Amino acid sequence: MANRKPYQQAYYPPMPTRATRFWRTNGLYQAWRFLVINLKMVRVISRSHH
Q: Is residue 6 classed as helix, strand or coil in its secondary structure?
């Protein structure tokens, strides 16, 4: 780690894979994840109100 210099390739994040890019841009998958996350939030909030 001591040999690293600023702005070398090691400082930049890795490029996403083809599959990662697909899932990030897939509208149906994004809608499903949105629904799942919202249901989890509703469950947590409803438990806190009792």
A: coil
* Helix/strand/coil (H/E/C) assignment for every residue in 21-48: HHHHHCHHHHHHHHHHHHHHHHHHHHHH
Q: pLDDT per residue over 7-42, tens digit each?
A: 776 677 788 999 999 999 999 999 999 999 999 999
Domain chopping of the chain, boundaries: 18-48
Q: Alpha-carbon distance 30 to 22, whole Å?
A: 11
The residue written with tokens 């998958």 in the block is 29
